[in-house]
Automatic annotation (TrEMBL):
Key words, A-Z: Endoplasmic reticulum, Membrane, Transferase, Transmembrane, Transmembrane helix
Pfam families, sorted: Alg14 (PF08660)
InterPro entries: Oligosacch_biosynth_Alg14 (IPR013969)
Gene: ALG14
Quaternary structure note: Heterodimer with ALG13 to form a functional enzyme.
Keyword Transmembrane: yes
Cellular location(s): Endoplasmic reticulum membrane; Nucleus membrane
Purpose: Involved in protein N-glycosylation. Essential for the second step of the dolichol-linked oligosaccharide pathway. Anchors the catalytic subunit ALG13 to the ER.
Protein name as it appears in the record: UDP-N-acetylglucosamine transferase subunit ALG14
Gene Ontology MF terms: N-acetylglucosaminyldiphosphodolichol N-acetylglucosaminyltransferase activity
Origin species: Exidia glandulosa HHB12029
Record bears the keyword Membrane: yes
A single cellular component GO annotation: UDP-N-acetylglucosamine transferase complex
Membrane topology: Single-pass membrane protein
Protein family membership: Belongs to the ALG14 family.
Amino acid sequence: MAALAVVLGLVLLTITRAGYVYWIHRKSVRRVARPSSTSTCAVSVFLGSGGHTTEALQLVAGLDGSRYNIRAFIFSAGDSLSVQRASSLSGSATQLIEIPRARRVHQPLSTVPRTFFLSLFGTIRLVVPRAGQTPLGDILLMNGPGTCVVLCACVWIARFVGWPTPRMVYVESFARVTSLSLSGKILSPFVDRFIVQWPQLASRSRFAEHRGWLI
């Protein structure tokens, strides 16, 4: 009975801590201030392969280079095309980081939990603080696909234990005109900014923001 009480107590503490961290997150999102025109940000960008990589690189191309420096391009294992394209844009200070893929195309859903957790364990290193700072910089930019969920989960684990974390910005794919992607539906409550590019999608999630076409 004593052991059961300890387990239940730990579960209750975990749930309470998770709820508190999420409440603080939503509160800070509402109150976040616009950065000054002279502030600079370090940005990490997830390249989701194929069209997702194209859109992510187009988003990067639209950033003001004097304010936003790209710290890292993150890509899934086996995505050689994204590596080639990122390499052509990378500066000397930009890292190319490979992480395990959470789900491959046409992978049976029954095997996804295993590959998801393998990806999670292989990605958690990216949020372990170095010299008191997050390796991912100030902003983590994502636009799909499913491995974004792993990255978001790692950031939330870091927030749960009190480590510094980047602001997560998820930009829904331009191809999503009438409905949100599965990744978008999952992540919209958990990222710091959830941006859609078509006005009709703003009503699909109470967390969505429409900023016009970004690519």
